[in-house]
Amino acid sequence: KSSDFEPIPARYIRIVALTEAGNRGPWASAAEINAYGVESFASRSGWTATADSQQDIHVPGNVLDGDVSTYWHTEYTPTTAPLPHMITINMQTTYLVDALAYNPRQDGSPNGNIGQYQIWTSTNGNNFIQVSSGTWNDDASLKVTTFSPVQASYIRLVALTEAGNRGPWSSASEINVSARTLLSRAG
């Protein structure tokens, strides 16, 4: 269960149980209680990116460099890597994530614009769950997809199609994640 409220500076958090959810008695219980910081596009400092395919200088890490003129692109020479393609970001810590922003390449070429996509998350990099899917338009505008908040250390964008059906390529200039950090309970 989670509850969102307007961010305010606080040292203490109190949860008051007014009723027992099943109306079985006057009890209340909790296994774990966590608090999260303010939501925003998370700092990508220290994050890493890997992909199933890449071409020359168009490496996965380009989606994290803050420069829209660089981009990740799947292999197109000497061979063409077939769809689907995936790029996975290791955020190095666990966040509560609820959105992914995909910026297609911004060099004037639409090759590799992602059409049909899936978004997957994981806490350990091995077991992924799908949190969203859809289809993006074949243009250079920023695409933002929201989904129900989930704890994740890894987020994976899977490209099922190239938006313009020009070939089996995928590309991205920047990927951002809307995330809230889990506040430490030490002390």
How would you explain this protein's 3D organization?
This protein has 187 residues and is mainly beta. Helices cover 0% and strands 36% of the residues. It is built from no helices and 9 strands. The strands form 2 sheets. Strands 1, 2, 4, 5, 6, 7 and 9 form a 7-stranded antiparallel β-sheet that branches. Strands 3-8 form a two-stranded antiparallel sheet. The relative contact order is 0.25.
Layout: helices, strands, pairs:
Layout: E1 40-41, E2 48-51, E3 72-73, E4 85-103, E5 116-122, E6 129-135, E7 143-159, E8 171-172, E9 174-181
Antiparallel strand pairs: 1-9, 2-4, 3-8, 4-7, 4-9, 5-6, 5-7
Structural class: mainly beta
* Helix content bin: under 10%
Number of strands: 9
N- and C-termini, Cα separation? 24 Å
Give the averaged pLDDT, no decimals: 91
Compact overview of the structure:
This protein is mainly β and 187 residues long. The chain has no helices and 9 strands.
List the defining traits of the structure above.
187 residues, mainly beta, 9 strands, 0% helix, 36% strand
